[in-house]
User: Fold these one by one.
Assistant:
Number 1:
Amino acid sequence: MVALALAGCVVAQPVVVKNPPPSPPLRVEIAPVAPSAAHVWVAGHWAWHRERYVWIPGHWEVPAAPGHVWVPGGWMPSGGGYVWVEGHWRAR
């Protein structure tokens, strides 16, 4: 049963590059009024997608749990190269 359920799933393998390409300059964004006091502004950023950078606009988001901070995406060393790691919430 499990094999049948997973048969159509495709797991994306991380792309490892020898030298990460430089990201374009950040865009200037003006954050609108927060929907609530619990929301945190996650600034817009360039993300690596299908071998090129794409702009991800900023947005308001409620942290994953109290005390968590947003860690922007970026290139991290991995296996003699670099791999793109998406932004995520992390405990302080």
Note: The mean pLDDT is 85.
Number 2:
Amino acid sequence: MPDAERTDVIVVGAGLAGLVVTLELLENSSLRILLVDRCAPHEVGGLAREAFGGMFMVDTREQRFSRIRDTVELAEED
């Protein structure tokens, strides 16, 4: 295990929140990061792995900002 004393940030958990925080820190800082989780590789992502299969978002503000045309009909076709 890496030396925790030489680590700037310790992220506990490789669920959605832990992964997002870790990626943001990696992309936007030079901090030394230690990501700790006890899950098996196929479990990385936590419960969000199952939840995303049921999410259905249409015509969001982010889509409109990016000029992505989306409607309920298009989403249902997908």
Note: Residues 16-28 form the longest helix (13 residues).
Number 3:
Amino acid sequence: MLEIKLYDAAGRAAYLAGFHATQGLISEGTGRSVKTHMGVRAQLHRFTKDDPRVDAELRAFLGRAYDLKTMADYETGPGSEVSPEVAAAAIKASKRFVAKMTELIEGATGRGHC
């Protein structure tokens, strides 16, 4: 997406990757599915608030990336497009976030909780 200059789509995809990875963590940890942005963020906070493996930047990722999704999906006019730099940073942060969620899921497997 970055190579073909679809920066809005890249920002949206960065968010969705993190959102779905977090849904996986929640599902592994609770056996339930959470479908809303606010529900996913609340559960993520609950699971990771005292976990030193998840730093403040990772905890803030979904909120920041959601802003990119909102911009891509709903905003119009000047300044409403995701810049190449912001899109690239979002993709980089998303990769780190998804890797951490994967690590947490793998650690939770077999224990029944996160």
Note: The mean pLDDT is 92.
